[in-house]
Design goal:
This protein is an alpha+beta fold. It contains 6 helices and 10 strands.
Length: about 220
């Protein structure tokens, strides 16, 4: 006798489950907060250090960022050398992203103290954060079908803010700061020169530092 979930040799429950999974993984456009985090001061030092020391320190940095993002309900979606990209979606995404940035900033300060003491490495973390609609999904015909792709103006701007951030600072847009304020999150930030992009309104920026910015940018 065939089970109720089977018909003509087909497992209908399994097929329905696969269909639901495929629907869930379809590309979509969704409100997203983007966070980029990058080490400053490390690349120049890496040429003078043992390769094993370099790779171990990068691993520590990535683990630190990954942990903070995960604890604040975000997801790491890309890693390139010592630059990490993460996304935050859903309710309270702005709050979660800013709290992750604050945690990364504070935790890296402790990590950097040990690096300077043990290896002579003077490094800091810089971050850029922005929000907006992003296209998110998997490309089935890609050589890496399990790679989540995230596209959108918010990604491009967050990356620009990363490169505007000085060592030890994270920079966020006014859009994100205002969204966080609506969620009851207050950010102690310094207004910075606006980001000028041709043919569009300037984007107001704010910078957050743990103590003081370091006197190097890379």
């Amino acid at each position: 006798m065939q089970g109720l979930a089977q018909h003509g040799g087909r497992d209908l429950a399994a097929e329905r489950g696969a269909q639901v999974a495929n629907e869930a993984e379809k590309p979509e456009r969704t409100p997203t907060v983007i966070l980029f985090a990058e080490m400053r001061g490390f690349t120049g030092m890496s040429d003078m250090l043992d390769p094993a020391v370099v790779v171990a320190r990068v691993g520590e940095f990535v683990s630190l960022v990954w942990g903070a993002v995960d604890r604040n309900e975000g997801a790491v979606v890309d890693i390139l050398s010592d630059t990490v990209m993460a996304t935050f979606t859903g309710q309270d995404d702005a709050q979660h992203a800013i709290e992750a940035a604050e945690e990364i900033q504070a935790s890296f300060a402790t990590l950097a103290e040990g690096w300077q003491r043990d290896f002579g490495i003077r490094a800091a973390v810089s971050m850029g954060l922005h929000c907006g609609d992003a296209v998110v999904g998997y490309a089935e015909k890609s050589p890496t079908p399990n790679q989540l792709f995230v596209f959108g103006d918010c990604v491009s701007i967050a990356n620009r803010l990363l490169h505007r951030a000085r060592a030890g600072e994270f920079v966020l847009s006014e859009t994100l700061r205002d969204l966080a304020a609506e969620m009851g999150v207050t950010v102690d930030a310094e207004e910075l020169p606006a980001l000028e992009i041709p043919r569009r309104d300037p984007i107001k920026l704010y910078g957050v530092v743990l103590d003081t910015r370091l006197d190097f940018t890379r």
